[in-house]
Amino acid sequence: MVWAKMKFPFEKRVKLAQGLWLLSWLAIVGGALNFCFGCFLKTEIRRRTEVMDNSNIHIVPNTLIVSGLAAIGINYFAGQICQDALDVGRFPRWKTFLKPYCCCAIIFTSLTLIGVILSFTMRSSLEGSLQVGLRNALRFYKDTDTPGRCFQKQTIDHLQMEFRCCGNNDYRDWFEVQWISNRYLDFSSKEVKDRIKSNVDGRYLLDGVPFSCCNPSSARPCIQYKLTNNSAHYNYEHQTEELNIFVRGCREALLSYYTALMNSIGAGVLLLFLVVLASLRYLQTSMEAVIGQENTEIETEGYLLEKNVSETIVEYLNPVMKLLLLNQVQDGLVKKSVRMSINYRQLPQVKDHFKISSCCVFLICDNEKQTA
Amino acid sequence: MAILKVTFTKTKRNILAQALWVLNWVSVITGLTLFSLGLFLKVEIQKRQEVMTNEIHMVPNMLIGVGLATCSINFLGGKICYDCMDTTAFLHWKLLMLPYIICTFFFTLYILVGALMCYAMRSDLEESLLLGLWDAMCYYKDTDIPGCCYIKHSIDLLQMQFQCCGNGGFRDWFHIQWVSHCYLDMSISNVVDQLQSNVEGKYLTDAVPFTCCNVHFPRPCIQHQITNSSAHYNYNYHGAELNLNQKGCRQALLQYYTQIMQFVGLIVLIMWLFELSVLTCMHFLQTSIENVLRLGDSESESDGWLLKNSISETVQHNFNIIKNLGKCYQVDDDPNIDVSSTSRQTQEAIKQRHP
What we know:
The complex is a heterodimer. Helices cover about 60% and strands about 0% of the residues of chain A. Chain A is mostly helical. Chain A folds into three domains: about 5-125 and about 255-305, no CATH class; about 170-245, no CATH class; about 305-370. In chain A, strands 1-2 form a two-stranded antiparallel ribbon. The radius of gyration of chain A is 34 Å and the shape is elongated. The model of chain B has no long low-confidence stretch (mean pLDDT about 85).
């Protein structure tokens, strides 16, 4: 009993082949776009690798790159098959090739689907990674003389200016971190000594932010020090002042940027691939009925699956299981347990051991002891 | 004696026509490229119009015009070459060919002028930027005056993007009041002293806006009391020059535009050479096909040349044509024209009466 049956007269077959040829070329373009987008996303993530804690997020662009390349190859062959499909003489040479080809196509289309799903689900992992990464980057801002960390200041300044953000959650993160190096602090000054004594770790904390937090759209020259002190600046109220520095946190800014990138490739390309796959299968099955017939213009039936869904899955999984030798590994155990069950019936003594434990290993060992 | 005479067989003529057809279409594409380059330059200049006194629109407009004209001329040329492959179709174009080639020759001169102008734009631009940047910096503080309120934003973005400070250097900010009166506390004696210390009552300090800060400097930015070495710990004004951006914005913008102009100028020069070679080949094709038509047999060989006679003879011939252009037709000159005897007698009678 076939699944998803459709009738195909000669003209419909011709139209199917032509339409599929066009679609396969569109799908090649889609695959190329997928690939380019994956590369672009990978470079964008690499650029900000210093503010990310782990590189788990790389799985999304890697999946997109692989599925893009595979899509180009698969759809190129689909186009070739279409060109030969209407010529009954040339179509049979593809016959043996088609079943494994369809399997591959299904696998790589599911890979694209997985890529799309991943790009939605990786958001929380990315957020965690950015949270930790940015916190560390803020702590190392002042260490411009420590090898390995000397470019953190530049990176954070560029990041804050480019994404128009300040700090991790918001600008107050800078109040909890010493971002001015001890080399530039005058330890003989009373103010510095007071600040250092006022906290447990002996850090110089102040209610100021680096200059890269300043908002160029502000009407007023930037106020970056003594932010919470209204009387320190003329005509200034820090509760109502919005434009002076960037209020958005860099974690939120980066997260929304990357999420927008990852969501934009989405379902359109996937839909295209599914349509190409289904059309190709219909074309193949409808052409198979024509082979060997004298009149090539007869009406034939096309279908998606020969048997229904569950039977097809079982049929395909069996060879895969055999390939992985899963049945063979069990064979030894199966044989011994078969032997044991026969012995069990013959030797009542085994029954007592069987009651103690039901583990196969114990069973076999006891059995061997018995027979020995 | 023809200059650069080349003999063309029929196949050679066809190959030449086909090659020229392809080359003409390539020229159409280069014309489109030129048009888009002109547009790009126009947009770039428009983006920074606030820091220029008079916008330099002549060069991008010329590039746009040249691009469009190249497209149309080469499109026509392609059509002519396509018809040249068939001698009967060529007859449509016979009369138009020579004027077309002459027009295209003058047009290539126009392309050359465009290329040279790209290189000459620099001095105009420098002057425009010098005055424009000064004016913009003076209006930096006027964020509450309609019409000037975006100048602060533009200058801040400019200084951040090009990593520059001020007009010629960061000291330009010391001569301008860039802090608005709205944010000055007149009750503080310092402020009042500063205002009274200069003739025009401007608040001048040795401070710069935050966008002058150099991102690559390891120390948190020092933007106030820059010249006062004792105001900051471990700071020497003369040693810490990299704290702020060293380049002036005039120099940065000039460099940027000069680079674009050099690139565009080079492309236009290459295009000019290409157009000239296409034109020369078309002239060869035209002369060879005309000779074939004169011979009558379209399968035979014919000669193509650059000029029919030597340069001096051609110049003299053309000069004569121009000289005789204004003169009316003379009855006495041409023996082939039959003039009736009555008119001749009337003319002689008139001559006798009025000697």
